[in-house]
Amino acid sequence: MLTPRQSLANMLPLSLLATILALASLAHGGSNGLGQTPQMGWSTWNAYGCEIDADIIIESAKQLADQMKPFGYEYLNIDDCWQAAERNAQGVLEANKTRFPDGLKAVVDQIHDLGLKAGIYSSAGTMTCGRKIGSLDHEETDAQSWADAGFDYLKYDNCFAQGRSGTPQFSYDRYNKMATALNNTGRPIFYSLCNWGEDGPWNFASTIANSWRISGDITNSFNREDDRCPCTSVVEGDCNTQGYHCSVEKIANFAAPLGQKAAPGGWNDLDSLEVGVSVGEGLTLDESVTHFTLWSMMKSPLIQGPVFADLSSQDRAVLTNEHVIAINQDPGSTPAIRLQSGKQQVWQSTLSNDSYAVALVNFGESKWDVELPLSEVFFDDRKLAKASWTAYDLWSDTDFQNPPRKPGQSKLQGMSVQGKLPRVELNPHQTRVWKLTPKKHDEL
Ligand SMILES: *[C@@H]1O[C@H](CO)[C@@H](O)[C@H](O)[C@H]1NC(C)=O
Ligand SMILES: *[C@@H]1O[C@H](CO)[C@@H](O)[C@H](O)[C@H]1NC(C)=O
Ligand SMILES: *[C@@H]1O[C@H](CO)[C@@H](O)[C@H](O)[C@H]1NC(C)=O
């Protein structure tokens, strides 16, 4: 089978192909070997914002290791506001001594001792978004100090960029400086590029980064329209104000055409998960399930952000649905494609072992009664449409009151389907997702 990049190569004119191959030979992020599946972890930002310190981070790391690591969440990412007020005499950016009395390395060592990996944050600007010191034009020094402290991951933001954007080349050059600096440290450091989708990073970042944000920041709302997130599409060339306060529904719609741009080593980042986050409007259970299912199927990074002490069983159950996580982490799965848009959506992912995931998503405000023919799921393959399948309803066995502490305890019952999916009635904002595995391979 062709990988997405090989099949792309088959379709491109030779001159363009030569350019792409030339770019690929300069690859760093894509060639650090990381991100073969989307990254999973937890970030300080949604839980604590700028109010972080070593104690909060170590306590959160213990909870992450205990509650979430068994399900695959491995990165403990320190977001903004760790920095000292000034660079030191050698130009090195150290941690705020009040917040990190023993420095960053001591914290990273404890994170590693818990079996986790450690992430750090900066901006490709003179200042970060929280108005701390940024890394623009200090890439080599900062990358080296993070490598020395043992970091495994960098989220690299886009505030105070000094106007060095506006064309893919400007943005590429600014972000590539950090890719090169990270590579030069010799330490494999996951590179999470966060330029909010400016200049279409899905077209320029795959050779340098392991993931790239596609839009302005997510907010903790399912569908609230907000003028601070003004774009209607991120691919039409008219999105000059990426903004922030983008809802779950809006980002899902932004991401729909971009699946073809992601592949092992470089992923579309739909931004962090709002499940269990207390700041903001909040999500209902159906909305959390929809959010988590779509992010998983689109192979977005799964970076969560609750205060663990406040996390409800219900939200923990959503974040630890091993069957949905398995779609996201399947080494052979492809980012979902959307087969039906509008308020009642149908999404399909190709999985390993000739299997598929199919989601029905009701963004509407009334119930959706639906019995979907498989000819619509497999509209371009009549054999698949006619084949017989075992269908597993991936949320049917979830115990929202007492979610399991470890994977392997939830056992789904499959049902035979042929010709159509089971008839379901979806509540407003609800999602149902099935995994389809072939019953007879000779039918395919
Ligand atoms: C640096 O880049 C080279 C070639 O692009 C790659 O082979 C190597 O693994 C990279 N090293 C790190 C530490 O990312
Ligand atoms: C360092 O931390 C202290 C204590 O939280 C805080 O008051 C101060 O503003 C921080 N400095 C910077 C530059 O963030
Ligand atoms: C595919 O099938 C093989 C053999 O049964 C199994 O070991 C593997 O885990 C399956 N892969 C996925 C991603 O489910």
Automatic annotation (TrEMBL):
Gene3D superfamilies: Aldolase class I, Golgi alpha-mannosidase II. Residues 1-29 form the signal peptide. Coiled coil: none annotated. It is found in: Secreted. It catalyses: Hydrolysis of terminal, non-reducing alpha-D-galactose residues in alpha-D-galactosides, including galactose oligosaccharides, galactomannans and galactolipids. Keywords: Disulfide bond, Glycoprotein, Glycosidase, Hydrolase, Secreted, Signal. Its EC number is 3.2.1.22. GO terms for cellular component: extracellular region. GO terms for molecular function: alpha-galactosidase activity. It is an enzyme of class 3 (hydrolase). Residues 342-436 form the Alpha galactosidase C-terminal domain. GO terms for biological process: melibiose catabolic process. Belongs to the glycosyl hydrolase 27 family. PANTHER family: ALPHA-GALACTOSIDASE MEL1, ALPHA-GALACTOSIDASE/ALPHA-N-ACETYLGALACTOSAMINIDASE. This is Alpha-galactosidase. The lineage of its organism: Eukaryota, Fungi, Dikarya, Basidiomycota, Ustilaginomycotina.
